[in-house]
């Protein structure tokens, strides 16, 4: 008698081991996944008010921001494989004293990107960037891995270590199960997510957005960086922009915590991420608060944006 074997939906740790991910790197990815379950629970049941403190950018911190930061920091420390971290919610680099000869990593993370959207029940996320060694301020091209967790109608985790981009979904048993593998972006798309106030657009940005509108591109913008990038990745095409603005020549989004990890994921899916003049992953970060304009998604749309921006006024 022939017994038909059912397709096994692989869990996160099993998948990481099967793919041969180095143990320390795998531990970091897995522990962020563990932390995200606590963050997810806190969002559904916890305090959504202000913490009475501010971060290094002078922004008021929500109690949820502070809690998410502590949860993720503790889980990263628990790995024994992280020597330094920088968090959007901390004013300084945090150092973990390590003994022994285990390979160490540095991690940059935004514990709860878009947290101001939680009280109106919109999707938000955790973003993580992983580097080898004890320097968390390296060019994004040197990342060993990157990931995000999206807290939406479903809680999903997307990661890459340079060998494809994979999505996992948190099931009713509290396990992350593989739901998409080898996510690939098409070279050309038909959706666009334009960040920033239109009245502050510089002339060439305004012309680029007008071109997209005139050519039938569909506007899809949630106000959250993680859900907007997730949409482009899982729909398989499109472009997200947060440009240089009048009064804000470097845009809004931060290079170490937001842009580098997302650029790494999108490039590993076959897409592209640019400041408008150079690849995001080639920018050398000089400080924690460094910001850059960004054009990220399908290659043709990013190249088109660069052409519009290169035209002299």
Please write out the topology.
Layout lengths: L11 H7 L4 H23 L4 E5 L5 E3 H17 L2 E6 L6 E2 L9 E9 L10 E9 L10 E9 L3 E6 L4 E6 L5 E5 L10 E4 L8 H12 L3 E2 L5 H11 L3 E4 L12 H14 L3 E3 L19 E4 L1 H12 L3
Parallel strand pairs: 3-5, 11-12, 11-13
Antiparallel strand pairs: 1-2, 3-4, 5-6, 6-7, 7-8, 8-9, 9-10, 13-15, 14-15
Classify the secondary structure makeup into a structural class: alpha+beta
Helix content: 25-40%
The total number of structural domains is 2
Put simply, the count of helices is 7
Looking at this structure, what is the CATH superfamily of the largest domain? Fructose-1,6-Bisphosphatase, subunit A, domain 1
Radius of gyration over C-alpha positions, nearest whole angstrom: 19 Å
Please give the number of β-strands: 15
Please identify, by name, the CATH architecture of the largest domain.
2-Layer Sandwich
Mean pLDDT, to the nearest integer, reads: 91
CATH fold call of the largest domain: Fructose-1,6-Bisphosphatase, Chain A, domain 1
N-to-C order of helices and strands: HHEEHEEEEEEEEEHEHEHEEH
Largest sheet report:
8 strands, mixed
Kindly provide the name of the CATH class of the largest domain: Alpha Beta
Unreliable segments of 5+ consecutive residues: 1-7
Describe the structure.
Helix 1 (12-18) runs antiparallel to helix 2, helix 2 runs antiparallel to helix 3 and helix 4 (203-214) crosses helix 7. The chain is an alpha+beta fold and 313 residues long. The protein has two domains: 12-180, 2-Layer Sandwich (Fructose-1,6-Bisphosphatase, Chain A, domain 1); 191-310, 3-Layer(aba) Sandwich (D-Maltodextrin-Binding Protein, domain 2). It contains seven helices and 15 strands. It is globular, with a radius of gyration of 19 Å. A hairpin with a 3-residue loop joins strand 7 and strand 8. The relative contact order is 0.13. The protein starts with 11 loop residues before the first helix and ends with a helix. It has an eight-stranded mixed sheet with strand order 4-3-5-6-7-8-9-10, sandwiched between helices. Strands 12-11-13-15-14 form a five-stranded mixed sheet, sandwiched between helices. The protein has a two-stranded antiparallel ribbon with strand order 1-2.
